[in-house]
Specification:
The structure holds two protein chains of two kinds. In chain A, helix 5 runs antiparallel to helix 13 and helix 10 packs antiparallel against helix 13. Helices cover 71% and strands 1% of the residues of chain A. Chain A folds into two domains: 57 residues, no CATH class; 233 residues, MetI-like fold (Orthogonal Bundle), CATH 1.10.3720.10. By secondary structure, chain A is mostly helical. The longest helix of chain A has 35 residues. Chain B has 16 helices and no strands. Chain B is an all-alpha fold. Chain B is globular. Helices cover 75% and strands 0% of the residues of chain B. Chain B folds into two domains: 51 residues; 224 residues, MetI-like (MetI-like fold, Orthogonal Bundle). The chains are: A mainly alpha, B mainly alpha. At the A-B interface, helix 3, helix 5, helix 6, helix 7 and helix 10 of A face helix 3, helix 6, helix 7, helix 8 and helix 12 of B.
């Protein structure tokens, strides 16, 4: 170190400008860095044109009124004022979205975990069952909505038939303003329970070391205790990952409602993403739509932040003491 | 196995200890639960396929009929004749193949740079890249629409696949980066000695080894693009340009049959729309599952 220090302090001045710009210490490294930028170029362009640019643009547009045809004109905070105080669908649509998410996220997580536990027991035919559970999540959302509209058909649908055999008169499901939201929740759960979330849980469960389970058994732990005190803590990072993605996914709900109910009946399934779409692309209120989108981003950020903050209380990372 | 269970039930004390009997009963209970769940997950598919093969007269009877008396395969033909279903399928295939090709090429380039090179700004860029995964599409949708509008790309397939050629998306870059990191650097160094440039190293040495990861990316991208609804909904106006996803919705809302019931046809169209992703899943199940799991465990 000591012997090298004179050369080291002189060297940077001799390094060509370009080499220093790319953060390299020698021409060879500089050449490699230039290759890297070349490889990165498509994504750099994509990042600027399709992500960072639009984010900045939509922030600016949220303070304007803009219909695509004539140039945007600046109106200050008027869009935000309109959203919070004048738009009669703003709060109800947020509320609907929260109601939907409040059921879909916890029930979805618990259900996926339950299915993963079922599959993790290594019973016969597990692979076939895993595939069967997974199939619904491969169904395109449009087909999903159409298929379930038919299953929920009030007069001749199989669901109301099944209910009638046990003496219950089935509701109008998607056509009823009371039952439309629960119907969409049922469809979402059917499609998502056995999907990616379940696969991730399954992999998490399979990663729990046998030795820990054996040790717990020697200490007298039963099946439930082993689950609660060994498996659950070890897969808690996986639960957090699925929770964060689940919340984002649920709050974004769009296609299912757009196809199955068009937000109705009487706005009972008018979700927030539907509201943004409608303002921006049915009425071409791009400025107002952008403001709504930014409110949405802030809400998502707050949710994610809360979850990450709260996670230190219940997520256990192996290799970390405490 | 089955006979073993029976004996246990009949004379439990004589054949098995109470310990193994409990295990058997527990396993039996779990198996029953598995089967119940499987029925719940499978029935809607069965009902859709059965309905797609019914006559109109069999559709609206109460109580409903499970199996059509004679399967009406011609329903599928009627769909093809009623709406431009084949055109939509072609459009969907075009979009899906073009965008997946773009995803594979451009995301492996970015992944290679992240995994194997030192350059200024790499860490920041990586965090920004991962950050894009958390952003809802709604924020970028409006400015992107304006951009494509100004480019004159409205009512063309361009907005559906050209963006995929610019990096393909953070998830794919991340997945491939993880995979390249797991390959030994000695491979690269040996190739350098043989006089290969960085691009040749990627193309001739690393990418062939990345085949499982590339297959994962391809399958996830193909299935995702196939079902994409909001992008074609926003950009496409004329029915001949539609992809299957919005074509199906168009078919539902604008039945071109003079007011006749079309539910059986809708079911047939839904079946045809759902078959390609399911087929692909069966062919490439292994890659698909690995990819999903990788994203969850290492994410």
């Amino acid at each position: 170190m000591v012997f090298n220090s004179p050369t080291a302090s002189v060297a940077p001045r001799r390094v060509p400008l370009l080499t220093r710009i790319v953060g390299a210490k020698s021409p060879t490294q500089a050449r490699r860095a230039l290759w890297a930028y070349l490889f990165m170029l498509p994504w750099l362009i994509g990042l600027v044109v399709f992500w960072i640019g639009p984010i900045i643009a939509s922030f600016y547009l949220s303070f304007t009124t803009y219909d695509v045809m004539s140039p945007p004109s600046f109106i200050g905070l008027a869009n935000y004022h309109k959203a919070f105080f004048e738009d009669e669908l703003f709060w109800p649509s947020l509320l609907r979205t929260f109601e939907y998410s409040l059921v879909v996220v916890p029930v979805g997580l618990a259900g996926s975990l339950f299915l993963a536990i079922l599959l993790n027991r290594g019973l016969r035919g597990t692979n076939i069952f895993r595939t069967l559970f997974f199939l619904p999540s491969l169904t395109p959302a449009v087909a999903l909505a159409i298929l379930w509209t038919w299953l929920f058909q009030p007069q001749v649908g199989p669901i109301n038939l099944a209910l009638s055999t046990i003496g219950i008169k089935g509701p109008g499901w998607l056509a009823s303003d009371v039952w439309a939201l629960p119907s969409l929740i049922i469809i979402t759960l059917w499609a998502a329970l056995g999907g990616n979330t379940m696969l991730i849980f399954l992999a998490g469960l399979q990663g729990v070391p046998e030795s820990l389970l054996d040790a717990a058994e020697i200490d007298g732990a039963g099946a439930w205790a082993k689950f609660l005190h060994v498996r659950l803590p070890l897969i808690s990072p996986t639960i957090l990952f699925n929770l964060i993605l689940g919340v984002i996914g649920a709050l974004k709900v769009f296609t299912l409602a757009y196809v199955a109910t068009q937000g109705g009946p009487t706005y009972s399934t008018w979700f927030y993403a539907l509201h943004i779409y409608n303002e921006a692309f049915s009425y071409f209120r791009m400025g107002y739509g952008s403001a709504l989108a930014w409110v949405f981003v802030v809400i998502l950020l707050i949710f994610t932040w809360i979850q990450l903050r709260a996670s230190s209380r219940w997520v256990y990372y192996a290799g970390e003491e405490g | 196995m089955a006979t073993g269970e029976v004996t246990v039930h009949v004379t439990p004390a004589a054949t098995a200890s109470s310990q193994s009997r409990t295990t058997l009963l527990v396993n039996l209970a779990w198996s029953v639960m598995l089967i119940v769940m499987a029925v719940i997950f499978f029935f809607p598919f069965f009902w859709t396929v059965a309905s797609s093969l019914k006559k109109v007269s069999e559709l609206y009877v109460f109580p409903p009929i499970l199996f059509p008396a004679v399967p009406q395969w011609k329903n599928y033909l009627t769909v093809l004749q009623t709406v431009p279903f084949l055109t939509w399928t072609w459009n969907s295939m075009l979009v899906v193949v073009l965008s997946t090709a773009g995803v594979l090429l451009s995301s492996s380039l970015a992944a290679y740079a992240f995994a194997r090179f030192e350059f200024r700004g790499r860490e920041v860029l990586f965090i920004v890249t991962l950050g894009t995964m958390m952003l809802p599409a709604q924020v970028t949708l409006i400015p992107q629409f304006i951009l494509f509008h100004d480019l004159g790309w409205i009512d063309t397939l361009n907005p559906l696949w050209i963006p995929s050629w610019f990096g393909g998306g953070a998830f794919y870059i991340f997945l491939l980066r993880q995979f390249i990191l797991s390959l030994p650097r000695e491979l690269d160094e040996a190739a350098v000695i043989d006089g290969a440039n960085p691009f040749q190293i990627l193309w001739n040495i690393l990418l062939p080894l990345c085949q499982p990861a590339l297959a994962t990316v391809a399958v996830i991208s193909l299935i995702g693009q196939w079902g994409d609804f909001i992008t074609p909904l926003i950009y496409l106006n004329s029915p001949v340009k539609f992809t299957l996803a919005i074509g199906l919705n168009f078919f539902r809302t604008v039945p071109d049959s003079g007011g006749l019931p079309t539910d059986h046809l809708l079911m047939a169209a839904s079946v045809m729309t759902t078959i390609p992703p399911i087929l692909l899943f069966f062919v490439a199940q292994r890659y698909f599952v690995t990819g999903i799991v990788m994203s969850g465990i290492k994410g």
